Amino acid sequence: MASCNEYIDFICSQISSVGVVRSRKMFGDYVVYVNEKAVILVCDNIPYVKIHPAIAHLMTNAEKGFPYKGAKEHYILDVEHCDSALQVVRILEEVLPFPKTKNRKKKQKA
Question: Which of 4, 39, 109, 110 has its CA 20 to 30 A from that of 92?
Answer without folding.
Answer: 4
